[in-house]
Amino acid sequence: MSFINILFLFSQRLHVGVRLFLLGRWEVEELKENTVPGDKGLVLKSAAKHHAISSMLTKAFIFDKKPLIVQYEVNFQGGIDCGGAYIKLLSSTDDLDLELFFDKTPYTIMFGPDKCGEDYKLHFIIRHKNPKTGEYDEKHAKRPDVDLKKFYLDKKTHLYTLVLKPDDTFEMFIDQSVISKGSLLEDMVPPVNPPKEIDDPADKKPDDWDERQKIRDPNAVKPDDWDEDEPSKIEDLDAVKPEGWLDYEPQYVPDPRAKKPKDWDEEMDGEWEAPQVPNPKCATAPGCGLWVRPMKNNPKYKGKWKAPMIVNPNYQGIWSPRKIPNPDYFEDPHPFEMTPISAVGLELWSMTSDIYFDNFIICSEKEVADRWAADGWGLKKLVASANEPGMFSQLVTAAEDHPWLWVLYILTLALPVGLCVLFCWPAKKTDEDFDLKKPDISVPFTKGEVKQGRGELEDDEIDLEDKENEDIGEDGKSVTS
Q: In this UniProt entry, which cysteines form S-S bonds (predicted)?
């Protein structure tokens, strides 16, 4: 597999930092849930401690004409309170010593998840070298416009991928779906290249510079009839006391059901008084106690007089310092060409233990990373899917966390059952139905009987016509006997 530029496996020798504050413990273990037989990963075991572990790459990566692809798996097996699971690609330097790997060890790229409180992040940070001063500055990719919370809390193994291309563009993936993409020249904070011009630090705003767009009219005069002493509210003299108002009933009365406590000591506690409760007589009356007129807005009120606003004739606009050429300006047209990397490491602090890492790969072909993912993360995903509970179990689990869901479940089941009973249940038959619909009895007839019956029917029709003729006279009027 010579097409793989760089490959980091756990079978290689791992270096653990020996700094005194790096007391965290690492283990190689299987997943606690959805275990793949024979598959193990690197597990951060200690909570509230610093951890550092690293390994040299089989070959240093030089940023020239090939993309850089970084990919690995993370599983927050116990959830995550506050901590990171990001990876550092360590810069190639003459004094790089992995036995002394700690937080100040120079890195070129940092990538991966990080969380504290309710702030869920996916870091992509580069340390960019200033071509004028030789100093390094951190440049952070803009935050993805995606809710990352589920990737930290579902206790599943997730695949994190960074693709950095020689055309200075990048893409970040979670579970092989694009989470964010952008340009090193346009989407880093602060920008890789500083502005060509800056504000002149020696330029100061003149004392007489007027930034007020509007001012009080200096020529305005308060009107003679303007009374500032008029109150904003006055009594409503047209108001009338409602009929039935109980002038001599207090709004609150002693609670008649209250009793003095047995242990009440009047010498120590004073004279006992029953607590006050709303007067029940006031509940059915317009009001109780002394009636006072309500207040209304005073039509004569104008308040304190102020001169009206006018456009400031001396307005000079919002002041800003003049621009000068930026003495620190430089232009790096290809920030992709950054410091080579020769090692990879995890340098982390976490309040949560049992963070699982697996299947690190650094290469230049996305197809290689995808095949690597299929053999590792893809298998874990299949096992997790196979072990997921059925729909009924998921509904019960959700209701245990949110009991109000039981009401929704019951209503959802009761509605179709009720509609079925309403429209499909057979209606009860009444005695009228039986009288109106008598069962037909099949009786055999002979040919002669059929003719005889037809003759009788014709005779009945003739008799009926004769009767109608008798009832109606020649002039069309009704005739009664």
A: 82-116
| pLDDT, position 5 | 38
End residue of a domain, out of 365, 387, 409: 387
**Domain presence at residue 248:** no
**Cα 110 vs. chain centroid, distance in angstroms?**
27
The reported pLDDT for the residue numbered 386 is 86
Output the pLDDT for position 377: 93
pLDDT, position 27: 93
How far is 46 from 164, CA to CA, in rounded Å? 33
**Is residue 71 located within the same domain as residue 175?**
yes
**Domain shared by 472 and 364, yes or no:** no
Task: Please tell me whether residues 375 and 468 are part of one structural domain.
Answer: no
In the numeric block, which tokens belong to residue 402? 């949110």
Q: Is residue 94 part of a domain?
A: yes
Q: Which domain holds residue 399?
A: 390-481
- A 10 A CB-CB count for 100 gives 14
Contact 125, 112 (CB under 8 A): no
pLDDT of 364 reads 95
Determine the longest span between alpha carbons in the chain, in angstroms: 139
Residue 468, H or E segment? helix 447-471
Rounded distance between C-alpha atoms, residue 288 and residue 247, angstroms: 6
Q: What is the pLDDT of residue 479?
A: 40
Q: Is residue 282 part of a domain?
A: no
At residue 11, the pLDDT reads: 36
Low-confidence ranges of the chain (pLDDT < 70): 1-22, 389-402, 404-405, 409, 425-481
The per-residue pLDDT for 384 is 87
Instruction: Identify the CATH number of the domain in which residue 102 sits.
Output: 2.60.120.200
Shared domain for 435 and 401, answered yes or no, is: yes
Residues 20 and 84 in one domain: yes
Query: What distance in Å separates the CA atoms of residue 416 and residue 410, rounded to the nearest whole number?
Result: 11
- C-alpha 296/C-alpha 88 separation (Å) is 72
Q: What are the residue ranges of helices labelled H in 247-390?
A: 266-269, 366-375, 377-387
Q: How far apart are CA 69 and CA 364, in angstroms?
A: 6
Same domain, 39 and 120: yes
- Regarding whether 440 and 453 lie in a shared domain, the answer is yes
Nearest to 23 by CA among 49, 62, 41: 49
3-state DSSP assignment of residue 60: strand
Task: Please give the structure tokens belonging to residue 110.
Answer: 């940092």
Residues 438, 366 share a domain: no
Is 2 among the domain residues?
no
- pLDDT for 88 equals 96
How many domains in the chain? 2
Q: Find all residues with CB under 8 Å of 364, minimum gap 6, and list them.
A: 3, 4, 5, 66, 67, 68, 69
